[in-house]
Amino acid sequence: MNLEQIIERTSPLVNRVSPVSEGSLDLISNLILVEVYEKGDVFIDRGKKNNKEYFVYEGVCRSFLLSPEGEEVTISYFLEGGVLSPNKTRTANQISHLNFQALTKVTVASLNADKFEQLMINHIDIREFGNMVLQNELLAKVEKEIALASLNAKERLILFRKKYHFLENLISHVDIASYLGITNISLSRLRKELMK
């Protein structure tokens, strides 16, 4: 992908979050490396060094952890045209707290987090974009916490369908069940119940 194509792919993604000038878009685009991952690939490993920011050009991925019993627990989903959790929220001393996995073939734009942070310091529109990404991440986490604490499983599934209306037919139901905090058998039962 050449620079012109990168700018073309990045512009709507960035401007949907918070508009930036053409000059700022060029500065961001000059930092981008395009990475492609196949379905099932874990491209950020918990406990390993990661000093990047990511935009999702194509596909769907998730963040997840392993429970003490060794079961995968899905934390968040990231869709085409979205931005992964900011580096500052998913790492400590550049060591990842989370795993990130491609649930479909995924094309991401990666940027060096230190260089991107320098752009945020030097350019107010890029800083506003970065702050809005951080705010959106916080809102999504709070929304999920509230849903897990205050809604029953059926209500959580209905909310999931509103937020991610096409994902249910695209990704593993095991991943969806773990995101909802229920078993796959319970999810299957709820799906049948909601079809009636």
Task: Describe it.
- The structure is a single chain.
- Helix 1 (3-17) packs across helix 2 (22-31), helix 4 packs across helix 5 (124-150) and helix 7 (173-180) packs across helix 8 (184-195).
- The chain has eight helices and nine strands.
- It has 196 residues and is α+β, with helices and mostly antiparallel strands.
- Helices cover 49% and strands 22% of the residues.
- The strands form three sheets. The protein has a four-stranded antiparallel sheet.
Number of strands: 9
Oligomer: single chain
Strand content: 15-25%
Low-pLDDT segments, ≥5 res: none
Strand order of the largest sheet: 2-8-4-5
Through-space gap between termini:
47 Å
Structural class based on helices, strands and sheet pairing: alpha+beta
Major beta-sheet overview: 4 strands, antiparallel
The whole-number mean of residue pLDDT values reads 95
Coarse shape: elongated
**Range of helix content:** 40-55%
**Strand-and-helix sequence, N→C?**
HHEEEEEHEEEEHHHHH
- Discrete helix count: 8
Q: Tell me the Rg in angstroms.
A: 18 Å
Describe the structure using short key phrases.
single chain; 196 residues; alpha+beta; 4-stranded antiparallel β-sheet; 8 helices; 9 strands; 22% strand; elongated
Write a brief structural summary.
The chain has 196 residues and is α+β, with helices and mostly antiparallel strands. It has eight helices and nine strands.
Chain-wise SSE layout:
Layout: H1 3-17, H2 22-31, E1 33-37, E2 42-44, E3 52-58, E4 61-66, E5 72-78, H3 87-90, E6 91-92, E7 95-96, E8 99-102, E9 106-112, H4 113-122, H5 124-150, H6 153-163, H7 173-180, H8 184-195
Antiparallel strand pairs: 1-9, 2-8, 3-9, 4-5, 4-8, 6-7
Helix pairs in contact: 1-2, 4-5, 7-8
